Amino acid sequence: MISNNNIHPFDSYPASASLVKPRNILLLIAGTVMCGLVAAKLELLGIGMLFGLICAIIYLYILFTSPVVGLYTSVALGFVLIGMGRYVKDVQVGLGMDAILILTYLALFMNRFKERVDWRPANKDITLFAVVWFAYSLFQLVNPEAQSTAAWFSGRGVSVYMFLLVPLTLLLINSNNRLDTFLYIWGIFSVLATLKGIMQLKFGVDAAEQAWLNEGNYKTHILFGKLRVFSFLSDAGQFGGNQGYTAVVFTIYSMAQKNMRKKMFFVTVALLAFYGMVISGTRGAMGVPVAGFMAFFILRKNIRVLSIGLGLLAVVFIFFKYTTIGQGNDQIRRMRTAFDPNDASLQVRLDNQKKLSKYMASRPFGGGIGHGGVKAQRFLPNAFLSQVATDSWYVLVWVEQGILGLLLHLFILFYTVGKASYKVMFKIRDPLLKLKIMALISGMFGVMVASYGNAVLGGMPTGILIYVSMAIMLNSAILDIPEEKMNSIENKP
Known about the structure:
By secondary structure, this protein is mainly α. The protein has helices at residues 22-42, 45-65, 68-84, 95-111, 125-139, 149-154, 160-172, 176-203, 207-221, 236-254, 260-279, 287-299, 303-322, 330-336, 344-360, 393-426, 431-450, 462-473, 483-490; strands at 222-223, 226-227.
């Protein structure tokens, strides 16, 4: 007998159900996004508007038929929204994410308009933490140190997306098929990101990207005359960190695939993602696979696997730390500097943290969301916090929300990883499900470690992927339901 808590309350499958099969969802989302990108790049406004209108009508029909499409769309948009902003000027493309998530909630209500909405699947501890984190962020609006409401709105993603995505994921990702579809979309856009990065590396940037570099971004993306590849993501740091994240998750997830075609897909994504990480020139991204795979080896609870894994990590460390192999390659040479404790960039970061620590000593609630780092200069060009680069994600949270906000944030992250790890090591019996959840845990832990050196965790698409993964990791019991039983439930009239 299957508990009602495990039954998704929003699914209804009319004759149009064929439209919401994973393959068709992927084609729709990918096609819509790519049409938008092409139209924006070619500045074909009229054609773009026509395509957009047609796609919007089709999309809304499918969304209100199956709200899970909205969640998948948010994953896709996480990859391309920031990049689209380079081609579409004077348009708040970031609001697209907010709009999709709100529409998805509306679709949930409309999908079962005549029935009471059953929120029990979302009644989890991670939902409570998301609410508390969002409430603390709302408190920042009355923080006496905060000087700009517009800055808060600009930095809203630090909590808003977790608040919106966690309940949606708990309600909608309720089967292995849906989990796999989430990974397919993630993988496809990761591959596209790497391919775009290769184009930048081999052929250079286009006019819109060059204009973006000319706005001052060349200081961090042109080093010693070489481009740090950023693809269509926000910057090279986000690109490198996210691709490292993808490489970890997809490498481990491939081990849980019995179907050879599926296995090859995940392996291919992992290899391309790793290459994308390397060409980004982001040294801190190395922390993602190093910490991620170390976490995986520990979760396996196998001394032989752990020993082999630690041996491989030791080889990687020795390669970068104590050899000059590949020194002629720009990417390898830059990655090697991450293992140098005397690196000039590291020293600058440490000096900045010393300056900030003195300022923050009397500010337990921080300086206000959106008020930290050089990004705040467009709102507060003369403020102290705007003049000091934060670099680290945790330093950014500390500066904006104080030591109290940082401790709350760290508690949520480590609670999630800790509880999910306990379930994997001692509760989950299905070996394939173990590997799937291990993949998500390991990837998240890798991002957590790497975020000390780069503001990776909260940016797009990494933040979106993290929030969805957190909900899946803490709701893994739903995936224990045999697929055929879940299908019979969902196909009931």
